Amino acid sequence: MKGMILAGGLSTRLYPLTLELPKPLVPVLDRPVLGHIIEYLKRFGVDDIALNVHYFPEAVTEYAGDGSRFGVRISYLHEPKLMGSAGAVRALADRFDETFVVIGCDDVTDIDLERAINFHRAHEAEATIVLVEVPDVSQYGAVIVDGDGRIQEFQEKPAPGTEKSKLANTGVYVFEPHLLERIPAQTFYDFGKQVFPELLQAGAAFYGVRDDAYWCDIGTPSEYRRAHRDALSRRIKLELPQGAQMAEGVFIGAGAKVAPKADIVAWSCIGSGCVVEDEARIESSILWKNVKVGAGARVDGAVLGDDVVVEPGAIASSGEYGKGARIARV
Length: 330
Prior knowledge:
This protein is of the alpha/beta class. It folds into two domains: 2-217, Spore Coat Polysaccharide Biosynthesis Protein SpsA, Chain A; 241-327, Hexapeptide repeat proteins (UDP N-Acetylglucosamine Acyltransferase, domain 1, 3 Solenoid). It is built from six helices and 28 strands. The chain has helices spanning 33-43, 57-64, 84-90, 113-122, 191-202, 221-232, and strands at 2-6, 27-28, 31-32, 48-53, 73-78, 100-104, 107-109, 127-133, 142-145, 151-155, 167-175, 206-210, 215-217, 245-247, 250-252, 257-258, 263-265, 268-270, 275-276, 281-283, 286-287, 292-293, 298-300, 303-304, 309-310, 315-317, 320-321, 326-327. The strands form seven sheets. The chain has a seven-stranded mixed sheet, sandwiched between helices. Strands 14-15-18-21-24-27 form a six-stranded mixed sheet. Strands 16-19-22-25-28 form a five-stranded parallel sheet, with no helix packed on it. A hairpin with a 5-residue loop joins strand 9 (142-145) and strand 10 (151-155). The model has no long low-confidence stretch (mean pLDDT 96).
């Protein structure tokens, strides 16, 4: 089956972490989120995958290659200028000749994709959105469906207490090829802002299928942290990189060196190649690759990008620190 991963965004909400790193390569448990998504699609037989790339495209193509190391086929749409979520898929219309799947590159999920595809086909849908119930729909937007799952309305980020539904759009879609005829060629076009409202207005066979599975959009710092906390507590099971270890809410990547007198407290992820010296304490934090935490330093509630240095006795607290940052003792 064919699919597409929308991977061209700038991920400005994760700055400064993504100032020099494209969103598909943002690590979750020391592995690019793109790797998790490719493996997820493969599990459900989606093994012919297209990616649109724009921001640091060479880094994405170098990581994913032709897909052979994942056991899939990968092709690319290079976008000098972003065309929007729908515009990017429309640019590859010739490759989609049967039911296909679209997913965002910031989704960490175990949604039952086979069930969604079967629902889509059973309802002879033109488009199907996978929906999950969330506690606070105001940050996503609410989707209202009837008893059969047909979409009736969208509420754009309703204020708490005014929502008509707790169901959020996950960004996991199942489409028929003729949907792409609704999207003008070589035009910036968005699924949420243009295609979906047009489907409603036209009375098209447009459905939402509810799933009680895990889902997290890692596109904001708070949700990025939540995905790690949930993975470390095994609420979502993700494949670990080779040589990594995880126990009691702590992940230690391959080649990381943690001194005997260092203290690593849940929920924390120590990336590959990191060095944590004696008397250092790391709590509820995410360290990317090759971070050095000096003796007696404290890291609490922080996300440290690649090659960050926390000097001996320094404190890094409740923030995001971009690649190569140096945190000195005050």
